[in-house]
Please model this.
Amino acid sequence: MNDDFYRIKRLPPYVFAEVNKMKAAARASGCDIIDFGMGNPDSAPPAHVIDKMRETLKDPKVHRYSLSRGIQGLRRAQAGYYQKRFGVELDPEAEVVVTIGSKEGLANMAQAISGPGDCFIVPDPCYPIHIWGFVIVGCEVISIPNTPDASFFTHLKQALDTAQRKPVAMIVNFPCNPTSAVVDLSFYEQLVDICKHYGIYILSDLAYCELYYDGKPPPSILQVKGAKDIAVEFTSISKTYSMAGWRIGFCVGNKKLVGALTKIKSYLDYGTFLPVQVAATAAINGPQDYVTNLRAMYKERRDILAEGLEEANWNVPLPDASMFFWAPIPEAYKKIGCLEFSKLLLKHADVAVAPGVGFGPGGEGYVRIALVENKHRIRQAMRNVKQFLQLDPEKQIHELEKA
Model:
């Protein structure tokens, strides 16, 4: 019997497994771990959304199969959101499909538009499904540095000019998970021009577009004239309304790509539970003061964490958007790498973070810190981190090597 499964064999060891194992062991021994590792919102969704869910559950008809492409009301709501937020018109029948979270949508898009030997361009570091969605279906991935500046386009053109086979598409993700980087509309204008010239599609992940703090709201690539000719965009209610477990996302834009995803989904699922879709519609169509307040909460957490890092003499850039800090590990610990540094932070400060290398080779030397603990826990974490960073690095590294 062959148990050397092709797709499983292509997946590397899970980088976060070691940290998760240590975290579980520490908690089992009674340690109070302050967990910044996973981008898992800790706030309750809007009250009116939960009320709509309860109300809808009472109807016996909603417990049947739903629609894999999403109910019409939800697709119309998302089209309305794009019109109000970005000034982009979408046809809810042909240019919008509901996904079971953006992660499922990205993975199934990889299936829908790829074939044997196809390749795709993915910036590094990246949200894991951006690369592994294509690897799982047997495609090749070309990596370019994920730097939101002029060098991005230099590396992109080099990759397109030297690829043995023309890529089918590329992924972009701004505000970025994990780096929190943002771009303006001129970046997307240049990207659309290049990809049109080379004849490749663009898959944009805009999951964090409502979590911005000190600047203008992040733009959509679909605001670029002619972008819908080659681009789709993935969004989600997970972070905007603290509804990560509800699993509602969207893919909108280019009709051919949306149609391909819609068709592949029709063979694979019946869509998210209908009451969840109805409640998600209420979230998008209802009052948006929740989003304003949520943004203020994350900004307050961001500023408290930034102040704590500064007091600990850990020099970390302040994010303009997303719910993450992308923190270069302190100079004294760079030689052991981000995974080992994460272990030390967990052991000596009771603080869990995500090792940057889990987001690709380009993430080595960084850790991702998610703003998913309340402000009091953040302050405690920063006190712990400050005490840890006052210890002798060489001694801590030596003990780690001995263990």
In short: Residues 6-44+290-402 form a domain with the Aspartate Aminotransferase, domain 1 fold (CATH 3.90.1150.10). The chain has 14 helices and twelve strands.
